[in-house]
Amino acid sequence: QVQLVESGGGLVQAGDSLRLSCAASGRTSSSAVMAWFRQAPGKEREFVARISWNGGNTRYADSVKDRFTISRDNAKNTVNLQMNNLKPEDTAIYYCAANIRGLLTTIQALYPYWGQGTHVTVSS
Known about the structure:
Blueprint: E1 2-7, E2 10-13, E3 18-26, E4 33-39, E5 46-51, E6 58-60, E7 68-73, E8 78-83, E9 92-99, E10 113-114, E11 118-123
Parallel strand pairs: 2-11
Antiparallel strand pairs: 1-3, 3-8, 4-5, 4-9, 5-6, 7-8, 9-10, 9-11
C-alpha cells in the first residue's frame, strides 16, 4: 500500500501563487509516476499534471500549462505542484495520485493510490 497526504491548499486571490505538496509513505517506489488531479464544484475530476520517476518527463493539462509546475524529490518521497497566476477557475479539490507501475498516463483509473485531497479556493 502507498499512502499519500496532500498539504498546502488554501484561499487566495486571483493572480496569487500557491504550492501544494504530497508526501508519500508505505510501499513507495522511486519508479512511481506521480500526478495531480482536481475536482471543481459540480464537475468531474480532471487531470492536472504528472511527472515521471526521475522528473525528466512531465505533462500538463492545457488549462494549466505555463502556470503550474510539477516537481518531485525522491529522497524525501514528495511531489509538489507550484501554481502561479491562479484564476478563479482553478478553484477545486486537488488530489495527489500514484501508480507504481511507472505508467506515464493521464488516465485516472490507472492510478490506484490517492490522497484525501486539499482545497484550493481562488477569489476574483
